[in-house]
């Protein structure tokens, strides 16, 4: 710390105890990683801490008491700190801003890649204080979140080294700032960190404004009170061991959480430095704390997003196997029903089984919506009109004691979204709201434009841009905190057994994420719940002339067999039975390579029906491409149990249709009928 001349000559008038406390407060500034500089109203440099020279790479000869602020700015401009441009113009702009004596905050990237957060705070009638914080690692961590654990360990080692270096610097301090205690308090109040001085009896001697506001108190109101009283019994129990460690003369660092006056959990990271007198003996604590609530929220959001992504991937992967199983069940049950003797009553047993199997297929579709695997048909949708129509439907659908109100934009607002899925999402949210208000209440749906800036993009996991925000709010019973983190998980529900599948919110989550948006739930038990989701905004759709659709080449009708390719034997058997019942002769292949050999050697194959995903190195899409190269007019139908037909590559011809499992004989017949040449459709198979 530089040792400036003291124009007030107040330091010598202090008592020894005041001088000790004063010096320790000043020396404590050098424990900070932030660089601090104080300028008078001229403006000229009055004082600074050692981090200023280290953080901004200033030569030792440059910094001195009375250094004009303009000279410091010109030094930075000449070495390119403010980018390219006329040096005098760059200096003039910053001098004008400084003379305005207004609070400001900017982030500046230095030529060496270092990113500094610069905060300026005026000191009434005296000058201003500037605070530089190195946020390079923080910005890098936001862009490289996947490497967070490795970076965090490196950061801890770096911080530890810096702290050890700071300890050595404390012993080398040759002098201290000679400013009045009141002026130093103004500086401490301007620092965006929580600072306190506590005596050996754990009672507060001093707290700056930020520290007092953290506890919802004034600086005067916190002095004299105990740590236990301010923290509360639960939070105090978590930090007591750290305080006892500091009493032994050790510097300690820890994180803690507490509930504020609004009942919200907040988090802080603290460094406690023991106050040890020159004569020896523990006198109290110096505390430096930083609010890390937003950081904790970001970490929790990341963990939740990763968990939901993993569940979605698992759901999408299982869909193929379930659809194959349901194809076998539905096909066999349908065949069994058709083969029952006349006069019997198979429907009593088979109809419920078929109905249950088809419900299983529908359940898989809903799971795929959660897994973001279901095909959507997005387009420009005027959301105001859609929500207005939905509100009229909801008014008739919900119970009479639930009032539905809307707040819609005055001008047309368009979102790029599948309108049917959006309606289903709003309906699901409305039903959940109704169930949360058994005694009645209010359901509010608000729609508004929303811009996601760069500063918020990483936090909400969305690209920068314009979106449409939907707020669905109820006045119901709310959601307990332990359940709030799980509301999007499939099959999780707080409703009684038989009153919900637990797929409503998971379906909404999958639809919103697949549509390029995101969703959050805020809830207070006993007060109500708000579900907020955003979807990409788009312009007004233009009426463009439809482009002529290229017609596929005319195909010659064949009377030969259908080549059926399916690796699951039981699924292959069911599809073979359906084809033969439709009147098609069938030859079979268990994989793509055997099917390709048949295509090369059997000339009269009329249709190719192939599974999409198969073992053996040649899947359905590649087989379709090879078949089209061999026989350009050959009708091809792909079947799949996966979420989307792009699961196995992008090599298939663009006009090859896909039939999704499970399907019945009628759906297969319709798909094959669509593949037949127009001249042959008059004689469709039975």
From TrEMBL:
Modification 4-aspartylphosphate, positions: 611
EC number(s) stated in the UniProt entry for this protein: 2.7.13.3
Gene Ontology molecular function: phosphorelay sensor kinase activity
Transmembrane segments: none
Catalytic activity: ATP + protein L-histidine = ADP + protein N-phospho-L-histidine
Keywords: Coiled coil, Phosphoprotein
Domain PAS residues, every copy: 180-250
Alphabetized InterPro entries for the sequence: CheY-like_superfamily, HATPase_C_sf, HATPase_dom, His_kinase_dom, HisK_dim/P_dom, HisK_dim/P_sf, PAS, PAS-assoc_C
Record-annotated Histidine kinase domain positions: 317-539
Enzyme class: transferase
Coiled coil, from the record: 149-183
Domain named PAC: residues: 252-304
Domain Response regulatory: 561-676
Identification of the protein by name: histidine kinase
